[in-house]
Amino acid sequence: MKTVKTGKKNAALKDPNNQGASERLHQLLTRNGYPEGRGRLSRFCKEFGVGKTTAAAWLNNDVLPRDRAEQQRIASALGSNVGYWATGEEGRDLQQVDFLLVGKCVNAIVVYLRDECELDPDTLPDIVLADAYGTLYRYAQENNGDISPELVAKVSVQVLAKLAQKN
């Protein structure tokens, strides 16, 4: 991995899922004619309007911009996408998670299990519940945030079936 020195310490946190992100960013910059060394950092800062400390973190520490729109702006300008920059998987783009919708899905299943099945969701294995939450979330995403009561019931029954299989 190439290193660009700025003389300042960056406080950004590394995401272990972004391993190699800096190397991929350097590759994208090379493909786009950015010079090696300090000239690369200077041009990058000027073109994308970011400070040297921030840019150095992206170039050296496998850190991505915190702002999703900024990630997309930079990746697009370099002829790539955020998924490739972050993970190295060609053609994959990362999706932003709608945490409010996730909360609605979790709540719908928890309430159903508690009220209709008389179960305490806190006593159930997390992995079984996570599958149920994910199924309902994907459905809700495809249906403009609507959560079908029928699907909540179906997913909750699947939770019960998985619990029965484990016992």
Describe the model:
It is a single chain. The protein has 167 residues and is an all-alpha fold. The chain folds into 2 domains: 16-87, lambda repressor-like DNA-binding domains (434 Repressor (Amino-terminal Domain)), CATH 1.10.260; 99-162, no CATH class. Helix content is 59%, strand content 0%. The protein has helices spanning 21-31, 38-48, 52-60, 68-77, 82-87, 99-115, 126-142, 149-166. Helix 1 crosses helix 3 (52-60), helix 2 crosses helix 3 (52-60) and helix 6 (99-115) crosses helix 7 (126-142). The protein starts with 20 loop residues before the first helix and ends with a helix.
CATH topology of the largest domain: 434 Repressor (Amino-terminal Domain)
What can be said about the biggest beta sheet? Answer: none
The CATH H-level superfamily of the largest domain is lambda repressor-like DNA-binding domains
The value of Rg in angstroms is: 22 Å
Percent of residues in helices comes to 55-70%
User: pLDDT average, as an integer?
Assistant: 83
Unreliably modeled segments: 1-15
Listing every helix as H and every strand as E from the N terminus to the C terminus, the arrangement reads: HHHHHHHH
Terminal Cα span: 49 Å
Beta content: under 5%
Figure out the total of helices: 8
Name the shape in a single word.
Answer: elongated
Number of strands: 0
CATH class of the largest domain: Mainly Alpha
The CATH architecture of the largest domain comes to Orthogonal Bundle
Q: Structural class, from secondary structure content?
A: mainly alpha
